[in-house]
Amino acid sequence: MSLTRRGFIGAAGALTSLTLWPNLGIAAANDTRMLVVLLRGGVDGLHVVVPRNDPAYARLRGSLVPADARAVDADFSLHPSLSFAHELYGRKQLLPVVAIAPPYRQRSHFEAQDCLENGTARPGGISTGWLNRCVSAMAGSEALSLTTVMPLIMRGPGDATTWSPPLPEEVNPVLLQRLQTLYAADPKLAGSFARAVESQDMEMSGGKGGRLPQALASAAAFMAKTDGPRIAFVEDSGWDTHSNQAAVLTRKLKELDAGLRAFHDGMTPFWSRTVVVVLSEFGRTAAANGTGGTDHGTGGIALLAGGAVKGGRIAGDWPGLAQGALNEGRDLRATSDTRALLKGVLASHLRVPESALETKVFPDSRDVRAIEGLLL
After folding, report:
1. Strand bridging mode 77-78 / 231-236
2. Residue 204 CB coordination number (10 Å)
3. Which 3 state secondary structure label does DSSP give 40?
4. Contact call for residues 41 and 271 (beta carbons, < 8 A)
5. Tell me, what DSSP letter sits at residue 74?
6. Quick one: 323 exposed, middle or buried, by C-beta within 10 A (0-12, 13-18, 19+)?
7. What backbone phi and psi angles, to 5 degrees, belong to 285?
8. Which of 73, 242, 361, 367 has the most CB atoms around it within 10 Å of its CB?
9. CA 249-251-253 angle, 5° bins
């Protein structure tokens, strides 16, 4: 089948009601685990999951096409930094979802993250977070946010606490992004700056791969306990790649990959009953810009990982990168609503009732049908 307009499982809007549960015993079903990882900055999904056979991809990306990407099927590859993720895909425990985004369709980080975290159709739609409201809908459950302050996604009436891992201090990634734009314009300094950033990250991480792997290892230490939290949240910044994207994402995706491995290794007792949901607020432009990066876009990527995931395939409805298929002539068009993905996971994995999903967890979302077939 041609990659252009290729249809995969899970296109929102053509799905049946949420009536099927995993074939688990009651005790096991009530002891599942879910970790949400938010990558702030707008991850370039076209760099993570490479549509190598889309005829427009190489023309739009030029030198940004990742070399030595790891094939996962006839049409897509994973970025070469994602070695453990590729291994999980081979075990059918990784499910990438392409062309997905929250209902927000503009390009502001703050508004997009607000929309993604509050779980409504617009920024400022509600003052609490969908993940906290999910906890509230699950009697007797608790959640842990591994952050210095309680993020919007975890605010609300549900039983949620924060724990800040004793991670080393580093330069604010937003400042680094701004400096990268300046240094990228100077061919004599761009390379040196990139190497300095990488060197700092290695020094700060003590050779352990950065902040994200340590945070994910800490999440596993809590969640792998018999009485540990069923839901946890981890965030990471620095994914806003306006310049020098190839080097930045090579490093950042290595950190994400190392984090997935650390979480997997720490969750051995519960891995078969675990789902990891990796999200970002939006994608990037289809074409590279003039500084070796990409700008804010719409359609992005989500990843599901875990022993409970029905992986080893690509999910989503791929719209293609032809000029006429792009959103506003510049972005990968989003064909699935992030809420549809989350509904599918929460219903089948955490047994949140459909009525609660439509009215409480994701208010006024009756028209957003859950993506089914995501989990075992």
Report:
1. unpaired
2. 15
3. coil
4. no
5. S
6. exposed
7. -60, 150
8. 361
9. 60
User: CB–CB of 339/102 below 8 Å?
Assistant: yes
Q: What DSSP line would sit under 87-148, residue for residue? A: HHHHTT-EEEEEEEE-S--S--HHHHHHHHHHTSSSTTS-SS-HHHHHHHHSTT--EEE-SS
The reported pLDDT for the residue numbered 139 is: 87
- pTM comes to 0.86
Structural contact between residues 232 and 219, judged by C-beta atoms closer than 8 angstroms: yes
How is residue 168 annotated by DSSP?
A: P
Integer angstrom CA distances of residue 44 from 70, 205, 293, 296, 310: 17, 24, 10, 9, 24
Classified by CATH at the fold level, domain 32-64+75-167+211-314+350-361 comes out as: Alkaline Phosphatase, subunit A (3.40.720)
- Give me the half-sphere count of Cα atoms (radius 13 Å) on the Cβ side of residue 157: 7
Query: Strand order of the sheet with strand 231-236?
Result: 160-162, 143-145, 231-236, 33-39, 274-279, 300-305, 94-101, 336-337
User: 300 with 282: CB under 8 angstroms?
Assistant: yes
**Structural contact between residues 280 and 298, judged by C-beta atoms closer than 8 angstroms:** no
Distances in whole angstroms, Cα of residue 237 to Cα of each of 43, 104, 124, 185, 214: 10, 20, 21, 23, 14
Residues linked to residue 304 through DSSP beta bridges, in sequence order: 95, 277
* CB of 157 closer than 8 Å to CB of 136: yes
The b/e string for 346-375 (b: 16+ C-beta within 10 A; e otherwise) is bbbbbbbeeebbbebbbbebeebbbbbebb
The sign of the dihedral angle between the CA atoms of 114, 156, 38, 212 is positive
Residue 197: pLDDT over 80: no
Phi, psi (5° rounding) for residue 247? -70, -40
Please name the residue that has the structure tokens 């606490």.
161
User: Is the predicted pLDDT of residue 285 greater than 70, yes or no?
Assistant: yes
pLDDT value of residue 318: 98
Distance (Å, whole) CA 236 – CA 211: 8
Strand order in 49-50's β-sheet?
49-50, 77-78, 70-71
User: What is the C-alpha to C-alpha distance for residues 275 and 264, in angstroms, rounded to an integer?
Assistant: 10
Mean per-residue pLDDT over the chain, rounded: 88
